[in-house]
Design goal:
The chain is an alpha+beta fold. It has five helices and two strands, in the order αααααββ. Helix content is 40%, strand content 15%.
Amino acid sequence: MSTATPTVTPVQHLYRSNASDTSIAAAESLDVSGLESLVLEAIRDGGFTGMTQGELLAKFPGHSYSSITARPAALKRKGLVVDSGLRRLGPNGKAQAVLIAKEFSL
């Protein structure tokens, strides 16, 4: 099983091309690699059961919504996390994708 940690996401990937100076400053202040590592570890801890976005948010109540929900997309782009194809109901009653670490995919 791989224990690779995420590579650093370039800061320009953290904001839109037309972002305000305050949005850019906020993006530059984030510890993205730390957040990605936390989220990746949580998804890996989920094993074959994986994690939904709602479950990730519940696991990290001290972090902002956007700090947590943006990390899986970056981890998917890096090939560390995949959509398992499964769905579970989230706290709002809607189906959410179940994400698993690449090493648990078939």
